[in-house]
């Protein structure tokens, strides 16, 4: 699942490459295209977008949104890639990958393609971003929140700290992978209850969250270049590193869970109780 650092860099690249371009064509490729496209304007997804101008691109939580102008009416294309979706920038002759569901043709010949192995993501066309399901409920950006706000927002949650970190209503943009990385930096066991954390540990968590995400944005930017469909994660300390030595203490990294919900951590650096 792309999370804040990847989507932040995807957004930066799109800002450079597509802002100011007009959309000349939209292809919704069956069978997946009609599944991922959600036209909440009810005016026709392609019909509205063809000829429209991309004014800006922004990221909020795990959404990338294009601010579009067509006939003077503000419009937004909000993309939530969920677990399996990716955007790709491609030249007109680049071979189309399997599971490409939507292609936007820009006036300069470039294409923005939406690829999704399991058609889990969504592309919403709306007049108001707040009407996108899940958008209005998002908590603040983790890099915008103060320590005091972080403490205050934590209070209503009583469960396992990893589960809290990944809740978009608490802070937006942190998923399974970066939660593991943040908790390793903070030296906190992922299954400790929020109610068990001391004030010092909460501050450590806050500091680790900021440091981990900021460093990751830099690393992803360096590794991704313009290849926005990639998800560079070879710099991770614990996530997907089961059995590898912990970079801090050398103990083998532990694994709990399965499939998309795995948790990796170091039992030595992140003791349980
Ligand atoms: Zn360790």
Walkthrough of the structure:
By secondary structure, this protein is an alpha+beta fold. 27% of the residues lie in helices and 23% in strands. The protein has seven helices and eleven strands. The protein has helices spanning 4-17, 33-36, 45-49, 147-154, 161-165, 176-186, 199-224; strands at 23-28, 37-39, 53-60, 63-70, 73-80, 85-90, 100-106, 111-116, 122-126, 254-256, 263-265. Strands 2-9-5-4-3 form a five-stranded mixed β-sheet. A four-stranded antiparallel β-sheet has the order 1-7-8-6. A two-stranded antiparallel sheet has the order 10-11. A hairpin with a 2-residue loop joins β4 and β5 (73-80). α1 (4-17) packs parallel to α7 and α6 packs across α7 (199-224). The two termini are 30 Å apart. 37% of the residues are buried. The model has no long low-confidence stretch (mean pLDDT 96). The structure holds zinc ion. Zinc ion (ZN) is lined by residues 246, 248-249, 251, 266, 268-269.
